[in-house]
Design goal:
about 170 residues, mainly alpha, two-stranded antiparallel ribbon
Amino acid sequence: MAGRGVTDFAPVLLWGERTAARLSREGLAQAASRDEPCLSAAHVSLYELGKRIPQLSTLTALARALGIEVRALLVPVDTADLARLRVEAGIRQRDLARMLGLPQARWSRTERGLAAAEALVLVRAADVLRRPYEVVARSAVHTRRTALSAPAHRARPREMTMQETTLATYAP
């Protein structure tokens, strides 16, 4: 979705990888601009300072320019969920769903743990994500368990008032 950055992005890791590659911010921006034309040294600075979160396409372009995998720029985790595996592979949700032959809404529910994934889909996902099937299957189980253990969100009824008169009570 437009406007959302990769939430697991670790600014200090970008800085570390850039300095290890002996690139200036300008040099990294120029190298990454092959894939992401509007990237500037100012953007790189904002990302490194944690004042801005890059989109997946920008993060992928930065990783390619540095010669590393996207996961090297993300906060390390013990057990990744399905969305994290997709982001690490640098693939948008819409594109992965298309590659798996699923509607995006179906894959979105699977990534959020709201729908169980079929084994055949996980086999194809492992292939597309270039990860072992066991890792993808473990992530699917982790994602589903996390979603099932989360408390249900219920909207509280609200009162609509106008000039001190209660009109109606509704629940959105």
